[in-house]
């Protein structure tokens, strides 16, 4: 494959296939592939799962269904084993980078991770990233390493993402059940149909499944990153990759790349609150490229501060049409909602600008998310789609 900087994501089933600690069964061939790529001058960042799987035999656990604290304890001890397993295949040093959703949401920490990886690559070090499972909470975790790998690819401005799993790629049907399932070599657009085809993983050690791989491909391709799902259990797959022949499914990078900031807003930051908009504001946002003014706000929900990300909701359809960074807190917005911008200062005693959310700090959502049961207005959805491609 023709690439200069790639993120390679390796799943638990490849790192600890026997469920009794790490093994070189598949990781040796993966490490040899990485070494060949690096010899050709390509830069590699590894996102490796397997902490929990590697630590599984080291922590007593009664039932096969593991509790979250037990998984965290396994992840912590297994991480060491997993790192040691990788390091033994490389003559050059590996580095360990453990991150959480929270780290990626914070712009300064995001840049800090990016700078660390950049310097390590310049020094011939192989960065190995995993989620910091011990410190994550339900709210603050990415949750699966497929999506984590897509975010890491964005952080380090990779041009390609390889998701190595124990399945050949995306099939038209579940190949474990249907003999006539056909591998899709190339996917140009990720549609609902593609998600429907994907089904779920049969491997209980993998937290991801095919759904999260397609989500990851969606995140990455939107950022201009070609994404491949390939079978990391087959050594011939690596020979094909070296010959630049696609052995799995390739998701082509989107031509309409959204800016790094909008991508970060859309995929990385979690919303703290909700602002419901009247139809005038919805129309201005979707069709006129406008910023959000206080006059268009009908109601405000949840507690949030200046600088937090909020969902913008259409009053009539109850659909989240956009996300953005607010210049005013929920308390301030409750006082200025429905007012003209020139009334902000007199109402609050101070003013942070005429707009509540500037257009540059806002991303229109292509896939509308329903807040509560409501009918989707097909016309509005179409408008939203064309807007997001701007
Ligand atoms: N962070 C988890 C681990 O190291 C893996 C999560 C995943 O595979 O998606 O076990």
Low-confidence stretches: 200-207, 372-390
Helix content: 25-40%
Biggest beta-sheet profile: 8 strands, mixed
Strand order of the largest sheet: 3-4-2-1-5-7-8-6
User: What is the distance, rounded to the nearest whole angstrom, between the alpha carbons of the first and last residues?
Assistant: 30 Å
Hetero groups: glutamic acid
Count of extended strands:
13
Structural class comes to alpha/beta
Strand content: 15-25%
N to C succession of SSEs: EHHEHHEHHEHEEHHEHEHEHEEEHHEH
Tell me which oligomeric state these chains represent: single chain
The coarse silhouette is elongated
The number of helical runs is 15
Write the layout of secondary structure elements.
Blueprint: E1 5-10, H1 12-15, H2 24-39, E2 43-48, H3 51-55, H4 68-87, E3 94-99, H5 101-105, H6 107-122, E4 126-131, H7 145-155, E5 160-165, E6 186-187, H8 192-198, H9 209-222, E7 226-231, H10 235-242, E8 249-251, H11 260-267, E9 273-277, H12 279-287, E10 297-301, E11 309-314, E12 319-325, H13 330-336, H14 344-348, E13 362-370, H15 378-388
Parallel strand pairs: 1-2, 1-5, 2-4, 3-4, 5-7, 6-8, 9-11
Antiparallel strand pairs: 7-8, 9-10, 11-12, 12-13
Helix pairs in contact: 2-10, 7-9
The structure holds glutamic acid (GLU).
What's a quick, concise take on this entry?
The protein has 390 residues and is α/β, with parallel strands linked by helices.
């Amino acid at each position: 494959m023709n690439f200069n900087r790639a993120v390679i994501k390796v799943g638990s089933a490849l790192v600890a296939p026997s469920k009794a600690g790490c093994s070189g069964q598949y990781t040796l061939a993966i490490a040899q592939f990485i070494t060949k790529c690096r010899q050709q001058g390509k830069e590699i960042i590894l996102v490796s799962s397997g902490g929990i799987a590697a630590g599984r035999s080291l922590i007593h656990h009664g039932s096969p269904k593991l509790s979250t604290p037990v998984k965290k304890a396994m992840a912590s001890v297994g991480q060491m084993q997993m790192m040691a397993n990788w390091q033994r295949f490389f003559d050059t040093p590996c580095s360990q980078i453990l991150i959480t959703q929270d780290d990626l949401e914070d712009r300064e920490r995001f840049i800090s991770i990016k700078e660390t990886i950049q310097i390590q690559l310049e020094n011939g070090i192989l960065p190995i990233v995993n989620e910091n499972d011990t410190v994550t909470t339900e709210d603050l975790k990415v949750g699966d390493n497929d999506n984590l790998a897509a975010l890491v690819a964005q952080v380090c401005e990779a041009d390609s993402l390889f998701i190595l799993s124990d399945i050949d790629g995306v099939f038209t049907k579940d190949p474990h059940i249907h003999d006539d399932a056909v591998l899709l070599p190339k996917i140009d657009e990720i549609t609902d149909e593609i998600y429907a085809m994907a089904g779920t993983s049969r491997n209980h050690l993998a937290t991801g499944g095919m759904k999260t791989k397609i989500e990851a491909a969606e995140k990455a391709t939107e950022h201009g990153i070609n994404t491949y799902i390939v079978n990391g259990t087959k050594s011939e797959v690596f020979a094909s990759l070296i010959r630049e022949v696609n052995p799995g499914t390739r998701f082509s990078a989107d031509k309409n790349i959204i800016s790094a900031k909008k991508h970060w807003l859309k995929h990385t930051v979690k919303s703290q609150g909700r602002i419901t908009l009247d139809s005038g504001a919805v129309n201005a946002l979707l069709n006129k490229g406008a910023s959000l003014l206080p006059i268009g706000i009908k109601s405000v929900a949840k507690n949030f501060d200046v600088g937090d990300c909020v969902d913008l909701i259409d009053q009539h359809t109850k659909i989240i049409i956009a996300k953005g960074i607010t210049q005013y807190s929920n308390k301030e917005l409750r006082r200025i909602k429905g007012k003209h911008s020139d009334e902000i200062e007199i109402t609050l005693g101070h003013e942070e600008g005429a707009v509540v959310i500037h257009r540059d700090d806002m991303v229109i959502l292509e896939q509308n998310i329903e807040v509560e049961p409501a009918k989707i207005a097909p016309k509005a959805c179409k408008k939203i789609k064309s807007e997001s491609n701007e």
